[in-house]
């Protein structure tokens, strides 16, 4: 790779012919798709991917806080009210590669600098035979930016509130048949105090963060209308949760190679590998918040993910077929020190295993006059093996050494969809689908604590399955305005949730002692989560003004019996009934830009029993850019401009944690 990059450096920039893109996305007929372009990505007030995704109502992470202050394991992604779990129920992909953490399924958002992303496609609705397991609620597809010859060097440097710094840089080396991009990003800040002022104690402090990422991408024409696309990315993520013994650290390296044939018969072959490690400290805080005592040192969570995908797109008459095979192999474990006495651990725990999925899929898209019909299906073989739970005293006997039985099975996914253009401005669409998700190794084997609450694993968890359907319409208006409306229903059978079992004080299996005010929970398969809702998206431009509006209404309810009977009829945890986002922007001559974004969330429940409610929240973000010359622009950004309190969590004893307060930024960007 080094010799290739050095060779490119000696070549004068020419128009780039290779595209760096994959094949056109499958299963687009009848789908509710929202596209976020590069301009919007670069004009986000925070400059962070999770913030941009909130432009699309219905997209949510498990917590309202972002990747600067939230615990990394709470950074999942889901849509359509199918939340209630910190594991992702939507599939995030970068250049075709699944991005969920191999062990836990969470998303490490600091790994994705928005300057490196060219486009985001959010597809609401699950059951994708094309994308496979995990796409229960939908997919979020990230495409790397395709550079142009006049974008050979780019960069930005901004400073912000609480001694924050955000730096990004990128370099393009190109010739007619190849290009290479090298990019990096670094962010740090002293952070804010997560606990609201009225609940703080002497131990509460600011929660600093320090995050970095880098990527190298090489795209090469290898002849016969074929491109080779090599990606290599790495990240480092360190955050503090605002009290002693709550630091969490993550790092990772991902690589992939994709060959794309764009001749008469299109085809693609992809292979990838992910290497991740995570570590976190946990503490117990007394009622007056005067002391914080370490309870757990999760000192290493090594995990690996390997995968492949191959597909071919032949044409039969006017129909386009897509046939392929894919697979993903995951290995991981958690290594922890616990039961601290006089500040020192006395016991060690190791838990983990492996899981594999292999699938065959086929899809057909058939145009018929003004209508398009799409039918797809897949069959997956899954297995969960080598599960182990080990507890031992340090320098002493083994307490528990359990090997869990290997399991396997088959699951199917499918989608039938169609659309018809009734008249030039109106397109109607409908879809029905089935999808599934395998439990993560984290859900199967690892206990965890959050404040006074403790949650135990469940090695007997079964896969989640979902059936759903939707109808909708897209309305085109003059001057490029578009309105999309969608109504949907979905039923998630076997939904994995943290189910309350008992209240402290008491000692419980695996997790140990839970103090008064705390709750003991265990991961279990619920009967179902039923979700119904409406979604609306409006966007367009009027002269120098452009506007985007997104709104969703969700009625999501749990169906529970047996040990989960107390949850029946309750809303899933962390699921707001309504979400809305509205952005109004102005673009002037010489790249003057100004925009504002309002986001609103209704109230939602912190817990499965719907006892702890997070208040509604409304925030305003702002962005402004002014040219200072032909190549440099001044940027000013504002997050949560009116400094609204956004409640992110409520502990068992009523202590409220907040998301980001007002944060102001100013800096320079190479244009």
Give the class from helix and strand content and strand pairing. Answer: mainly beta
Largest sheet: 25 strands, antiparallel
Number of helices: 4
CATH superfamily: TonB-dependent receptor, beta-barrel domain
Please sum up the structure shown:
3% of the residues lie in helices and 58% in strands. The protein is mostly beta strands and 671 residues long.
Topology summary:
Layout: H1 2-9, E1 32-37, H2 38-42, H3 49-53, E2 91-94, E3 97-98, E4 117-124, E5 138-144, E6 153-160, E7 164-175, E8 178-189, E9 209-221, E10 226-240, E11 247-262, E12 266-285, E13 292-300, E14 303-313, E15 315-316, E16 319-341, E17 344-368, E18 371-393, E19 398-403, E20 407-423, E21 426-437, H4 441-445, E22 448-450, E23 453-456, E24 464-476, E25 482-493, E26 496-503, E27 506-508, E28 512-514, E29 519-525, E30 528-542, E31 545-559, E32 578-587, E33 593-601, E34 604-605, E35 613-614, E36 617-627, E37 632-639, E38 647-650, E39 656-658, E40 663-670
Subcellular location: Cell outer membrane
InterPro entries: Beta-barrel_TonB (IPR000531), Beta-barrel_TonB_sf (IPR036942), Plug_dom (IPR012910), Plug_dom_sf (IPR037066), TonB-dep_rcpt-like (IPR039426)
Keywords: Cell outer membrane, Membrane, Receptor, Signal, TonB box, Transmembrane, Transmembrane beta strand, Transport
């Amino acid at each position: 790779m080094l010799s290739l990059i050095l060779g490119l450096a000696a070549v004068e920039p020419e128009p780039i012919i290779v595209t760096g893109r994959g094949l056109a996305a499958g299963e687009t007929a009848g789908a509710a798709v929202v596209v976020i372009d590069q301009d919007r990505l670069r004009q986000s007030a925070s400059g962070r991917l999770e913030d941009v995704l909130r432009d699309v109502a219905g997209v949510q992470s498990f917590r309202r806080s972002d990747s600067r202050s939230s615990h990394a394991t709470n950074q999942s992604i889901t849509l359509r009210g199918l939340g209630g779990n910190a594991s992702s129920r939507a599939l995030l992909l970068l250049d075709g590669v699944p991005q969920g953490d191999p062990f836990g399924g969470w998303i490490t958002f600091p790994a994705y600098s928005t300057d490196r992303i060219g486009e985001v496609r959010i597809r609401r609705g699950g059951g994708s035979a094309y994308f496979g397991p995990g796409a229960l609620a939908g997919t979020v597809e990230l495409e790397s930016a395709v550079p142009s010859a006049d974008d050979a060097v780019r960069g930005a440097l901004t400073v912000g509130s609480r001694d924050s710094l955000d730096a990004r840089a990128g370099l393009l080396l190109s010739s007619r048949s190849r290009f290479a991009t090298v990019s990096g990003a670094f962010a740090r800040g002293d952070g804010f105090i997560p606990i609201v002022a009225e609940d703080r104690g002497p131990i509460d402090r600011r929660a600093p963060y320090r995050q970095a990422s880098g990527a190298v991408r090489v795209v090469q024409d290898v002849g016969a209308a074929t491109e080779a696309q090599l990606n290599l990315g790495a990240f480092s993520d360190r955050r503090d949760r605002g009290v002693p013994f709550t630091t969490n650290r993550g790092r990772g390296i991902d690589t992939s190679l994709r060959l794309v044939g764009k001749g008469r018969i299109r085809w693609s072959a992809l292979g990838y590998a992910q290497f991740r490690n995570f570590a976190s400290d946990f503490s117990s805080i007394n009622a007056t918040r005067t002391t914080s005592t370490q309870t757990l040192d999760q000192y290493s969570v090594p995990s690996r993910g390997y995968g492949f995908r191959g597909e071919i797109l032949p044409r039969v008459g006017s129909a386009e077929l897509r046939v392929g095979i894919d697979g993903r192999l995951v290995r991981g474990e958690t290594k922890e020190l616990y039961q601290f006495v006089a500040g020192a651990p006395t016991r060690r725990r190791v838990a983990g295993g492996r899981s594999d999925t292999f699938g065959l899929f086929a899809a057909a898209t058939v145009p018929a006059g003004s209508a398009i019909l799409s039918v797809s299906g897949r069959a997956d073989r899954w297995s969960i093996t080598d599960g182990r739970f080990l507890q031992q005293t340090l320098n002493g006997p083994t307490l528990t050494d359990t090997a869990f039985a290997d399991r396997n099975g088959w699951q199917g996914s499918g989608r039938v969809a169609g659309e018809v253009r009734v008249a030039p401005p109106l397109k109607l669409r409908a879809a029905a689908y089935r999808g599934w998700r395998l439990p993560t190794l984290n859900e199967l084997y690892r206990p965890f604590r959050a404040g006074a609450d403790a949650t135990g694993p469940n090695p007997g968890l079964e896969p989640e399955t979902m059936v759903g359907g939707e109808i909708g319409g897209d309305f085109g208006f003059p001057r490029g305005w578009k309105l999309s409306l969608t109504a949907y229903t979905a039923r998630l059978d076997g939904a994995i949730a943290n189910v309350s079992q008992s209240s402290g004080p008491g000692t419980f299996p695996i997790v140990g002692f839970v103090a008064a005010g705390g709750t003991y929970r265990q991961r279990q398969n619920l009967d179902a989560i039923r979700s119904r809702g409406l979604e609306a998206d409006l966007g367009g431009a009027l002269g120098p003004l452009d506007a985007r509006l997104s709104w969703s209404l969700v009625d999501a309810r749990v169906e529970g019996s047996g040990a989960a009977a107390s949850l029946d009829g309750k809303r899933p945890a962390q699921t707001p009934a309504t979400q809305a986002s509205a952005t109004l922007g102005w673009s002037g001559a010489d790249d003057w830009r100004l925009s504002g974004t309002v986001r609103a969330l209704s109230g939602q429940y912190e817990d499965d029993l719907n006892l702890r409610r997070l208040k509604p929240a409304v925030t305003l973000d702002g962005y402004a850019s002014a040219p200072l010359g032909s190549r440099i622009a001044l940027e000013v950004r504002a997050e949560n401009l009116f400094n609204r309190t956004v409640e992110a969590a409520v502990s068992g004893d009523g202590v409220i944690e907040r998301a980001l307060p007002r944060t102001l930024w100013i800096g320079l960007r190479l244009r």
